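Sequence of Glutamate dehydrogenase (Polaribacter glomeratus).
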Amino acid sequence: MILVSHFFFGFIFSFLGSITPSMLNMTALKISLENGKEQLNKYAIGVSLVVIPQVYIAVFLTKHIVENPSILEILEKIGIVIFIFLSYYFYRESKKSKIKIETTAVKKENAFLAGITLSVLNMFSIPFFCGSVATLDAFKLFSFNSSAVLFFVVGSLIGTFYILYLYGKFAKIIQKKTGELTKDINLILSILTGLVAVFTIIKSLI
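Predicted 3D structure, token representation.
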């Protein structure tokens, strides 16, 4: 029963943690609209595979956080730099895409590699899972037993893949609902990553 509960917790936390617009799921939306479901699935698999080491690292950090709480502070500072860079990158791409959309078709990307790269750069994932594990542990709902951790990791992987899959599957519906905004998804990604950077900076100063 404990293994099933850990799988469930991993799925729910990763699913709910990615359900709001973010760099990863908005990129899934972008890839689905531009390159189709096959590339979307490759992207989602790439993102999900990186979740495996991220969750394991989060569990390890949470277990030892009391002994060395400065670890998360270091990760937050690194995350600030990464998100500022990504915000600039997506803003620059949004300027280019306005010209490309009018003149040429969008070129297919290596979606699997893009998924791995963006997921690795998403340093917010580790602190998020640290917080999830810490919350569960505070309520005596988490076990650091290797089997339980494995089921939590698998649940997190599937939860991440599923939410990205849903974003891609309903991409056209989301596009219609959001109107003109999704015509320039790179700009949305730029704003989102910029907001995360600002939020992280504020959090580190408090």
